[in-house]
Design a protein that fits this description.
Blueprint (H helix, E strand, L loop, with lengths): L6 H9 L7 H26 L3 H39 L6 H42 L5 H25 L6 H30 L1
Helix pairs in contact: 2-3, 2-4, 2-5, 3-4, 4-5, 4-6, 5-6
Organism: Bacteroides luti
Protein name: Formiminotetrahydrofolate cyclodeaminase
Keywords: Coiled coil
Length: about 200
Amino acid sequence: MLSDLTIKEYLEKTAGKNAVPAGGSASALSAALAASLTEKIANLIASKQENEDAKAEMEEISERMNALREEFTQCIDRDVEAYQELANAYKMPEETEDDKKDRDEQIQKSILIAAMRPFDVAEMAVLMMDFIFEVAKQADKKTISDVCAAMSLARSAVFGSSLITKENILQLKSKGIVIELTKKSDDFQKLAFQKEQELLDWIRK
């Protein structure tokens, strides 16, 4: 389980010669870091907030980030599992016509799974960016830079995951699914850029 490794061990595996972990797991890790940092800042703000409504909002966001952090952490391993399933599908026998048909069906199924793993990360990370912005609105000068770091990590997760999704679906035979996932992935990237830019513009005001 990659999520059980130390940071140093994970980095060494990522830098290694094996095919995984790679961009999918790294993007999920980036999203998990964004959630962790946002959770931390929200808790800090809540502990100093005298307004009960504002405090409750930060506590709710903290809980959401905690749940997302756990989900993104699981995605680090899910991406590798999906790759391994695809690799196994390519190793299936193709001696008979039935073998070839079963192999092809399993490959297509595994490709879609491999594409959806990072797609899910991108989708969740885009939604997370809205909560990061809400935390920024209550952050002080000492913590706003941490909020920006969280937003940048989230944006990186969206871009990386979306690009990986678009790359994985190239082998799908269903053109309808390819078109749909490509459009949604492009939309995620545009939204992520807009949300990060909105935060930076808001800070400069």
